[in-house]
Design a protein that fits this description.
single chain, alpha+beta, Jelly Rolls, eight-stranded mixed sheet, four-stranded antiparallel sheet, 29% helix
Length: 356
């Protein structure tokens, strides 16, 4: 296995993309990318003030819940500000993550797990065994809850990862309370159904490294896809580096994060649970030829053996006497992950398999 980072560094000044990294575009890749100058109205990303949702007065919380509802209905994506996760912790995690990717090939190859549910996996691309083209991406993937796992090196990495994982879990739990309330349900509905209250839910942390690419128009970091789980919480090393793009109203919207904000998107299991009311968002990661972009995402989902189906409470009509038909069949979270990880990333292809 050759990591992209090592490919770039071993080649001195790499001037061309090797043919195996030339990405074949899909229909969604051909969608127009929004120009922030000519279409500024298109890039009004929803912003959620976390502090007002958790510590504000009832009127402020009600307003934020309404904003959260609109964000989930219209975007499936939003930024979270005033979240209480210290900037020092975020910076320490990013530096430690860079240090991990700077380890020797020999050290990183110790973590190239062969099985899907290996608790620590380091690799490149997404699924090289089935992909026609390799992705311009190296990654570290960790199962951090309900059982915490971390590499031994760098020495301080584990402690930082554990604290950060706990903070983002707490944030996800509070956001899920707000989302439950926005659906007209009890605020603890999703947390109780998805094992959050019992601390049995699943949290996966994925660190992505996208090194500079000599021909960024030919390669891609991650192709258009939706995430598994309920919510993904993401941060990146430098908010000025454009890389994440969200598909909104058939256009690719480049995301420019606010300093010290988190980016949050709804996942496939949120779409299943809400019977399609809150849809998972398709997004992609593009690369550039100037600098390395690192993103760290935590995906939050139910316990691996939990079957997720549309919530019965959301199938009732306004009177509450008749049930509308479920739009998705139930599936174990474990089985969904196996389905997703056995293929190459391609939009909502896995979710499409569950539609009724």
């Amino acid at each position: 296995m050759l990591f992209v980072k090592e490919l770039v560094e071993s080649a001195g000044r790499l001037t061309r993309v090797p043919s195996k990294y030339v990405f074949e575009t899909t229909k969604s890749d051909d969608c127009m990318v929004v120009d922030p100058v000519s279409e500024p109205e298109t890039i009004k990303i929803p912003i959620i003030d976390y502090s007002l949702m958790t510590s504000g007065n009832p009127d402020q919380r009600s307003q934020v819940i309404n904003e959260l509802r609109n964000a989930c209905l219209e975007w499936g994506f939003f930024m979270v500000i005033n979240h209480g996760v210290g900037e020092t912790l975020r910076d320490e995690l990013m530096r430690a993550t860079e240090s991990f990717f700077d380890l020797s090939m020999e050290e990183k190859l110790k973590y190239t797990g062969k099985k899907l549910f290996d608790p620590i996996k380091c690799g490149t691309s997404f699924n090289p065994n089935v992909e026609k083209s390799l992705l311009w991406r190296d990654y570290l993937k960790l199962l951090v809850h309900p059982h915490f796992n971390a590499p031994h090196k760098p020495s301080h990495f584990s402690k930082i990862l554990q604290e950060y994982s706990k903070k983002t879990r707490e944030m996800a739990s509070e956001l899920l309370k707000g989302i439950s309330e926005s659906l007209g349900l009890d605020e603890n509905y999703i947390n109780e159904k998805m094992g959050v209250e019992s601390e049995k839910w699943t949290q996966v942390l994925v660190a992505n490294m996208y090194p500079p690419c000599p021909q960024p128009e030919l390669s891609i970091g991650l192709p258009p896809h939706s995430d598994h789980g309920l919510l993904t919480i993401l941060m990146q090393n430098d908010p000025s580096i454009l890389g994440l793009q969200v598909l909104h109203n058939a256009k690719w919207v480049p995301i420019h994060p606010l300093p010290n904000s988190f980016l949050v998107n709804t996942g496939d299991h949120m779409e299943i649970l809400t019977n399609g009311k809150y849809k998972s968002v398709v997004h992609r990661a593009v690369v550039n030829n100037k600098t390395t972009r690192i993103s760290i995402g935590t995906a939050h989902g139910p316990p691996l053996d939990k079957i997720v189906s549309p919530a019965p409470e959301l199938l009732a009509n306004g009177v509450g006497t008749q049930l509308s038909l479920p739009a998705y069949r139930g599936i174990k979270y474990r089985d969904f992950l196996e389905l997703q990880q056995s293929k190459s990333l391609n939009g909502k292809s896995c979710l499409d398999c569950l539609r009724l």
